[in-house]
## 1
Amino acid sequence: MIRAVFFDAVGTLIHPAPLAADVYYEAGRRHGSSRATVARRFAKAFRKQEDIDRHNGWATSARRELERWQSIVAEVLDDVTDPEACFAELYEHFARPESWTCAAAAEEVLAGLRRRGLVLGVASNYDHRLRTVIAGLAPLRGIDHLLISSEVGWRKPAPAFFAALVRQAGLPPAEILLVGDDRDNDYDGARAAGLQAVLVSTPSDKRIGRDGIDALRDLPHHPSLT
């Protein structure tokens, strides 16, 4: 029986609004960039940093997360006139709650799970800025636990991250459900650690199968919770 439900943050519970690539483009334009588009460059830079973390066994820290985003911004917007000012603007932007929107039906789903007596948590590879973001989004203020990789010292899908999640929940792994949109980090990582998991479909990954859902609103009806 599931007694706690933990959610991935970015891409599952919250989404940047406007899209991250659009925010980067506008910030770059203000700081002298001539890039016509940044979406592909952003995806490439993000994957590069993921590969670095994978090579390092998914170890992380507050310093590493800051350096990660400095590297991404520098690679995406490599022609700005003031790189430090551009990075500072982007870093601060994504720390503000108003830069994010909750997933459709998030408030309804969380309230329904809470009425069932389930413990609710967020388990994220985002950094300390997530605390400010969640505190400023009314539908998420009832979250019981917040687990952030840079504070744990390990990023998902490292087993040590999920071990920390289990300790914080104070429950056996099999009684914890992890809901996320990343097959490797969320679904496979949680399952390997003994947790149950549900994969939320994304535009780039529709192969959710019987253990997945098309949208967050479908979670209360998933077999693991019925």
## 2
Amino acid sequence: MSEAHKIRTVIVDDEPLARSNVAVMLRKDPVVEIVSECGSGKEAVAEIRTLKPELVFLDVQMPEFDGFDVLEALGKDLPAVVVFVTAYDDYAVRAFEAGALDYLLKPFDNARFETALARAKDRIAQRRIAPRGANRIAIKDKGQILFLDIADIDWIEAADYYACLHVGQKSYLLRRSMAELEQEFDANIFCRIHRSAIVNLERVQALALNADGENEVVLNNGAKLPLSRRHRKDVQARLIVPQNSH
């Protein structure tokens, strides 16, 4: 297989021996190219953003910055496939169930590793045929990691040092600033309407005046959000112009 078609892979584990074990097994597969081995979560975030691997073998339990922190920090820069590696099955199973991903419970044998790698390769092959793009975001929630489709977010609310993502009847806290999310998310879809709110334009039903004569944005789920004077003209212009126009 040509270099261009190899699966670029990153291994993340704070234990050198554990990284080495994964690397030894990966090198048996000519399709896989190990582009980095990381000993900490923070190093992993930087490497994944720079190298853009399709596959990451990620230890869940790491000091200071664990595997879930890595995924949350990556925002929409998530790799196509993450295989969790951990000695604690309670974390791994919840992550697996939430994200429909695979996990390796330490210590694992060759057969279990090969099964996980085969599943990862199948998913990557499917993504290459029909790429989804950067349209997921990882959220830590109640001891597990959830992978949300960004398009499902109705609106985002500032909450101190967090951002609160409103998705249908549910809401999730994300340790990211509003400024970061505004820059990260597709500007054709998400729009700042107030210093404390960003909306999905596809959810906007109307612009209205409330009882006090103040502008507000009405979403199709009935939510009414304040529209600041600073952002009013931009919001109006972007709602009038068709989203798919060029």
